């Protein structure tokens, strides 16, 4: 597994230097790339947010009304991006975590099947929504989240992930407009 385009921006090199790799996690044969150490270093986390916002503005021009973060690690990156973009944040969760009336979607993921939900009134019709997650693997969760946005009447601006595992071909399922800071091939 190698990283594409890191050398084009020394800021990305600095950020990725803190990532760790764990073999056979969460199951045998999987090489898990842990990006969470970036959260431990306030300078690196600020740098990650700076670069992310630059890339979001370049890829997705126009107003963004909401950032919708996918459970669970989209919750770590989404709120800070929403703050910097001057918009609201909406959590997209697994079943049984949200109160009230919900919109839900079943989907297939890398390790099995799952469901994603959002509060029915969280995404107003016509709202321009950017999906945020930590990693794009097979694309199932981003595709399901995009379906949730549409079911609520929102307009999907696109999707932003910190890392794309390109060798898993997640772009085939993920929404068309996608930006990834790091792409592993």
UniProtKB/TrEMBL annotation:
Does the UniProt entry include the keyword Repeat? Answer: no
Instruction: List locations, semicolon-separated.
Output: Cytoplasm
Protein name stated in the entry: Adenine phosphoribosyltransferase
Which EC number(s) are documented for this chain? 2.4.2.7
Q: Which GO terms describe its molecular function?
A: adenine binding; adenine phosphoribosyltransferase activity; AMP binding
Query: What metabolic or biological pathway is this protein involved in?
Result: Purine metabolism; AMP biosynthesis via salvage pathway; AMP from adenine: step 1/1
Q: Which family does it belong to?
A: Belongs to the purine/pyrimidine phosphoribosyltransferase family.
Quick check: keyword Glycosyltransferase in the entry?
yes
What would be one Gene Ontology cellular-component term for the protein?
cytoplasm
- Reading the lineage from the top rank, the first entry is Eukaryota
Q: Which UniProt keywords apply?
A: Cytoplasm, Glycosyltransferase, Purine salvage, Transferase
NCBIfam families found in the cross-reference section: apt, PRK02304.1-3, PRK02304.1-5
Q: What class of enzyme is it?
A: transferase
InterPro entries, A to Z: Ade_phspho_trans (IPR005764), PRTase-like (IPR029057), PRTase_dom (IPR000836), UPRTase/APRTase (IPR050054)
> Which catalysed reactions does the entry list for this protein?
AMP + diphosphate = 5-phospho-alpha-D-ribose 1-diphosphate + adenine
User: What does the protein in this record do?
Assistant: Catalyzes a salvage reaction resulting in the formation of AMP, that is energically less costly than de novo synthesis.
Q: Name one GO biological process term.
A: purine ribonucleoside salvage
């Amino acid at each position: 597994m190698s990283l594409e385009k890191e050398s084009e921006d020394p800021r990305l090199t600095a950020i990725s230097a803190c990532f760790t790799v764990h073999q056979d996690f969460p199951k045998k044969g999987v090489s898990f790339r842990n990006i969470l150490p970036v959260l431990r270093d306030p300078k690196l986390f600020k740098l990650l947010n700076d670069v992310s916002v630059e890339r979001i503005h370049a890829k997705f021009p126009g107003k963004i009304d909401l950032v919708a973060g996918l459970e669970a690690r989209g919750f770590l990156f989404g709120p800070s991006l929403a703050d910097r973009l001057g918009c609201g944040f909406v959590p997209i969760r697994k079943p049984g975590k949200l109160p009230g009336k919900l919109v839900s979607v079943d989907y297939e993921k890398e390790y099995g099947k799952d469901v994603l939900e959002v509060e029915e009134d969280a995404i107003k019709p016509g709202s321009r929504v950017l999906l945020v997650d930590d990693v794009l693997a097979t694309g199932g969760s981003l595709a399901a989240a995009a379906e949730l946005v549409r079911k609520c009447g929102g307009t999907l601006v696109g999707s932003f992930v910190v890392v794309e595992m390109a060798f898993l071909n997640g772009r085939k399922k993920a929404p068309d407009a996608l930006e990834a800071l790091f792409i592993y091939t």
